[in-house]
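re: ur question from earlier - yeah i can do the single chain one, its not a big deal. heres the input i used so u can compare w yours
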Amino acid sequence: MTDAASQFLILICLTAIGAGTGSALALVNFADRCINGRFFFRFIAEFSVIVGFGALLWLTILTLCHGQIRAFYLVTPTVFGAIFAICISKLLIPRVCAAKKALNRFVSAHSNGFIAKYILK
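and the output i got, formated as tokens:
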């Protein structure tokens, strides 16, 4: 068994991994809703997030826990990931309409050389 300081460090690392995963998944969901992306691109984005943070989790388990896998090491990031995904999604979902409008203004400003004609002169 490890001492209290290393257990606390392990807990902090697992919590940060879960929080990062949940936040990244919420941002992928927000971006997909804003640009009405394709299913394949959303799958690739979510897959890369999960694989990246899974590799980080495995690296943390190998280095800090000496390769000993316990249910606690998998439950902690999952719970914090779900909590952060829900919280960040609740913050971002009301802003989807405004983001779509801003994206449409950006696209229309770049069509027909509007920026080059009127702003850059």
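Residues 14 and 43 are 24 Å apart (CA to CA). not sure if urs matches, ping me
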